[in-house]
Design goal:
The complex is a heterodimer of chains A (about 100) and B (about 140).
Chain A: E1 2-5, H1 9-19, E2 24-27, H2 32-36, E3 59-63, E4 69-74, H3 84-95
Parallel strand pairs in A: 1-2
Antiparallel strand pairs in A: 3-4
Chain B: H1 2-41, H2 50-68, H3 73-95, E1 115-118, E2 123-125, E3 134-138
Antiparallel strand pairs in B: 1-2
Helix pairs in contact in B: 1-2, 1-3, 2-3
Classes of the chains: A alpha+beta (about 100), B mainly alpha (about 140).
Chain lengths: ~100, ~140
């Protein structure tokens, strides 16, 4: 499990403490990783308050052992994102 | 004298109608907000939010109706709150849409090589993922 956000390392650390998150959490303030995946949000009407230039489109990816994408879920809307049941169902489908 | 008294009673009655409308508008707006945040907590805001929008706009309409019918002060306060809340959420729904990354990564693509710092400020290289099944999540961060 890997997460990518524009938070700085210390901000991620704080979020991890507050929410009890596991997994490797990466900092992508300059959106290099986000751009490599083509996931920069083009439609932001206002910049995020954090100081980053933009944000990634909320996206969940399932990647196989050869680095190939098995499943992608974008949210078209930042008020929505992949719910846990949805992700678990996809995991089940692809791992069985 | 009698006529004035009757007019007074009638005026009091409309004020009751207006006050009731005002209070109703706030109750409706409050219930809709409560449901909205419950859905957010469950990460289950539906794709089609027209029921929410309709409910909020009904609250706005009731609030405006309260002023037309004349309301007592507390009905008026309730109506103003309902109009503000009931107007804000449909607005937020309207601006929440964002463009999906059209050139974004797709099923079948190979993940690009990348490096980044993690929350311990440790260097991370994506080659370390080879041979492993990975769930990767891009999200907006803690704010």
């Amino acid at each position: 499990m890997i997460t990518v956000s524009t938070d700085l390392p210390e901000e991620i650390l704080e979020g991890r403490r507050n929410h009890g998150l596991n997994g490797r959490m990466l900092s992508d303030r300059d959106l290099t990783v986000t751009d490599a995946f083509g996931l920069r949000n083009q439609g932001m009407h206002s910049g995020p308050p954090s100081g980053a230039e933009s944000l990634p489109v909320p996206t969940t990816l399932l990647i196989d052992r050869n680095g190939e994408v098995l499943w992608v879920d974008h949210s078209e809307n930042y008020q929505r994102r992949s719910g846990p049941e949805y992700v678990l169902a996809a995991l089940k489908t692809h791992l069985d | 004298m009698k006529g004035t008294a009757e007019a007074g009673v009638a005026k009091g009655k409309t004020k009751n109608v207006g006050t009731t409308l005002g209070l109703l508008s706030l109750v409706l707006a409050a219930i809709t907000v409560a449901l909205w945040f419950r859905q957010i907590n469950q990460v289950a805001i539906p794709e089609n939010r027209s029921a929410f929008v309709l409910s909020f706009l009904t609250a706005v309409a009731l609030g405006i109706g309260a002023f037309f019918a004349r309301t007592r002060w507390f009905g008026g306060v309730a109506a103003v709150l309902a109009i503000v809340v009931g107007g804000f959420f449909p607005f937020s729904v309207a601006i929440s849409r964002q463009e999906v990354a059209l050139n974004g990564i797709r099923v079948g693509d190979t993940v690009p090589h990348f490096t980044a710092l993690d929350d311990q400020s440790q260097f991370f290289d994506s080659t370390s993922l080879e041979g492993r099944l990975v769930l990767m999540k891009f999200f907006r961060g803690h704010w």
